[in-house]
Please model this.
Amino acid sequence: MDRYLMYFSDDRVKIFLVKNFTKPGRLFNLATRMGILLTVFLIAGIFSLIASPVGAQDQKPDNSDIYEFGVGDVLEILVFNEPEISKTVFVRNDGRISLPLVGEFVAAGMTSETLAKNISEKLTKVVSEPNVTIILTENNSKVYYILGQVTNPGEYKISRPITVLQAIAQAGGFLEWAKKSRIMIVSGPKPSQKITYFNYDDFLGGDTIGQNVVINPGDTIIVP
Model:
């Protein structure tokens, strides 16, 4: 005699025809297996709902590498169909730039997007729907210096965040007689300069990890 087993899945009632299950034990085992399978599906669905917002949060853009203009940078200001206004400019010591017809703008500390917006807003007085693009042609404001017992001492530009260890590697590494335990990082303008130390040997041993700091524009690394 045929028997019927009912269970719920996807909000619908499905009826399975179970043939030749004349023994109650076999019918009970089938029901148990179906119950476990349904439980697994429900748990998987709950975890997928929980994981979705977390994944969305992980996809937020990282703005840590956005470049801000500084004194000494050279910018190319392009205004579409306006060659008389388009110009290559130098960020002066006061942090400003000058453009024909619209005057001066603060550029130091600005991103290309923000500065382009400020210029566009002022250009609307003389140009219909201005389209402004700003290109950094020379990075002269974000630099650091490394001196002493390295292969290639000198001035280096900062195009992205860089640590003391990375700066030393960029300079070609240590010379033979370098005193790796007393590397100095001189930060800030005179007379309030700050000196910190980086012990390369301790760092390799897993100690003083925090001494491998990010280099700021204007810093000087000295390897005695």
Q: What stands out?
A: The chain is about 25% helix and 30% strand. The domain at 74-138 is CATH 3.30.1950.10 (wza like fold). The first helix runs from residue 24 to 58. The helical segments are 24-58, 112-123, 164-170, 200-204.
